[in-house]
Amino acid sequence: MKLTFNHTIVWAYDKQKTAEWWEQIFDVTAEPFGPFLQIKCENGADLDIADIDINGDMDSVVEQHYAFLIEDHAFDEILGRIRDRGIEIHAHPDGSGQGEYNTNDGGRGMYFSDPNGHNLEVITVPYGGWDQA
Q1: How far apart are CA 128 and CA 66, in angstroms?
Q2: Nearest Cα to 65, choosing from 94, 36, 106?
Q3: What does pTM read for this prediction?
Q4: What gap in Å lies between CA 67 and CA 120, rounded to an integer?
Q5: Cα–Cα distances in Å, from 68 out to 15, 57, 74, 112, 121?
């Protein structure tokens, strides 16, 4: 069986403000798609940003983790936008290495939170390094 990740819903207290924040931090565009504001990733997967009350049965966002593999130059750009906004970064998923980024697998990575408390991660080299085959 071939398994390909297609999309996920990013729950938000305010999908418009959340989409604008993601657009500013990641230099992407969110487009309306049904009840969502959708960000298309380079690998074909979509992030569908939705208000938590879309079904009328949720009243708080459950914090999730979203990790993104990015190019090295994009890391510098994102780090600059994060620092300009005073957003706290961490080198490790447990919150240690405050104000630092990691150099795992010969790349760079960091963790930070969006306005809804989602734990975001950007890395420039995939875990385990690049496949040498």
Answers
A1: 18
A2: 94
A3: 0.91
A4: 6
A5: 20, 29, 11, 12, 6
Tokens of 115: 């306005």
pLDDT, tens digit, 9 for 90 and up, residues 49-89: 999 986 666 678 899 999 999 999 999 999 999 999 999 99
pLDDT in tens, 95-127: 999 999 999 999 999 999 999 999 999 999 999
Helices (H), 1-133: 15-26, 72-84
The total number of residues shown for the chain amounts to 133
Q: Do the strands 109-113 and 7-12 form a parallel or antiparallel pair, or are they unpaired? A: unpaired
Q: What is the CA radius of gyration of the chain?
A: 15
DSSP string, 86-121: T---BSSTTS-SBT--B-GGGS-EEEEE-TT--EEE
Q: Are 89 and 114 in contact (CB under 8 A)?
A: no
- Alpha carbon distances (Å) from 118 to 10, 61, 129: 9, 9, 25
